């Protein structure tokens, strides 16, 4: 099967998809380990795409909207939506990409996935360690294998994924769904706020003003969506930024600590070692080893 099918108009792929007897038609389902510094230049596909983060983080921009995606995040975008991806130096990025279409069938996918997708929202939620993550991995596994059995399984698994996303959107009914959509948008706003205030950090009053929620509600909802509290998330992105600076900037350790919001280098050193299992100098040593003389 050509690995370029996902660039074509849906009708142009059908001649090469003889094993598919009904939609949805899959033109790509793979797991990608991005090399350090990798990025995807702006492009437009003519089909639907699901993009799931298995490990690490990346900045994913769709139609001018920026999504800082992390472990467990799932994005969805439709035909002709311009998008590009940028990884962060020193930060891994492993993702699952699924590209598909429904041929000439007029399929109301936005009704299935929820009105927010029709309105331009691309963030579907965080599914780290949930059943949907296993389904995506299962889809990749069967897509790699040839034969009608695996083709049918691929279609079956993809439809179960879409149905699970639909069930998650509809679980609380139309009114609650609108509230859930608004909550999702606010949580992304909170995460973007933390990303942009890496050095100075945040106060819970800042987040309360940003969302209109109480401190406890913010913590509960943020943890539910991203698997950690806002404070834990801040620590995580600070440490990832510290790794990036250690690799690229040439700054001293004390300067790096200051750049990521730690006045006390000893406190920074302790939390770095506690979270990563090594000191920053040990981390650098694993990356910059002397090349032995030949």
TrEMBL record:
Signal peptide: none annotated. InterPro entries: AraC-bd (IPR003313), AraC_XylS_family_regulators (IPR050204), HTH_AraC (IPR018060), HTH_AraC-typ_CS (IPR018062). Residues 188-286 form the HTH araC/xylS-type domain. Keywords: DNA-binding, Transcription, Transcription regulation. GO terms for molecular function: DNA-binding transcription factor activity; sequence-specific DNA binding. PANTHER family: HTH-TYPE TRANSCRIPTIONAL ACTIVATOR RHAS-RELATED. This is HTH-type transcriptional activator RhaR. The gene is rhaR_39.
């Amino acid at each position: 099967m050509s690995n370029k099918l996902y660039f074509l108009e849906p009708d142009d792929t059908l001649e090469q998809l003889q094993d598919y007897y009904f939609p949805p038609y899959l033109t790509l389902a793979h797991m990608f380990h991005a090399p350090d510094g990798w990025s995807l230049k702006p492009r437009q596909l003519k089909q639907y795409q699901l993009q799931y983060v298995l490990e690490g983080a990346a900045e994913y921009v769709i139609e001018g909207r920026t999504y800082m995606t992390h472990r467990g995040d799932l994005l969805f975008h439709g035909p002709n939506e311009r998008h590009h991806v940028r990884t962060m130096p020193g930060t891994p990025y492993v993702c699952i990409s699924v590209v598909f279409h429904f041929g000439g069938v007029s399929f109301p996918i936005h009704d299935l996935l929820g009105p927010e997708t029709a309105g331009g929202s691309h963030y579907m939620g965080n599914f780290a360690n949930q059943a949907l993550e296993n389904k995506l991995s299962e889809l990749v596994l069967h897509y790699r294998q040839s034969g009608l059995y695996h083709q049918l399984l691929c279609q079956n698994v993809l439809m179960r994924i879409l149905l699970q996303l639909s069930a998650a959107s509809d679980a609380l009914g139309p009114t609650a769904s609108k509230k859930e959509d608004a909550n999702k948008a606010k949580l992304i706003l909170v995460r973007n706020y933390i990303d942009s205030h890496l050095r100075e950090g945040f106060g819970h009053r800042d987040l309360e003003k940003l969302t209109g929620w109480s401190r406890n509600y913010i913590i509960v909802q943020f943890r539910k969506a991203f698997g950690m509290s806002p404070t834990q998330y801040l620590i995580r992105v600070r440490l990832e930024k510290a790794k990036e600076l250690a690799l690229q900037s040439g700054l001293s350790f004390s300067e790096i600590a200051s750049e990521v919001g730690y006045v006390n280098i000893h406190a920074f050193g302790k939390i770095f070692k506690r979270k990563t299992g090594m000191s920053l100098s040990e981390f650098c040593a694993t990356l910059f080893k002397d090349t032995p003389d030949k």
